[in-house]
Amino acid sequence: MHKLISILSVAFLGFIAWIIYLANTAQNSVFFEFVASIPNGDKLGHFCLFGLLTLGANFAFKLKCITLMSSNIYIGSVVVFVLVLVEELSQYFIPNRTLDATDLLADFVGIITFSLITKFIEKHT
Description:
- With 125 residues, the chain is mainly alpha-helical.
- It is 71% helix and 6% strand.
- It has one domain (2-123).
- The chain contains five helices and two strands.
- The radius of gyration is 15 Å and the shape is globular.
């Protein structure tokens, strides 16, 4: 089961990387059109994409934690947090992208929410 979760998580990361590439190169996508058709779809997309990536990463890393400021934090959550931070901040340097603090906030809320979901699943299995 762990292998399957890891493979799906890597595939999902690849999907997200492809979406980021399309956005960075100003290409159109059916996904962008779909998200644009939903009220607050962009923020919801950030929340879901990086939240689900967090959930997969936490299980791919076998629910291992590190201790930061006397709190146990999933390694998968930390990895996704760092990736999100780098990706969002890199938009400042890409001419056709816009650094948006609310996108970053939606990413972080997704990471935190799905980390809590991970904790719930861990406790109930």
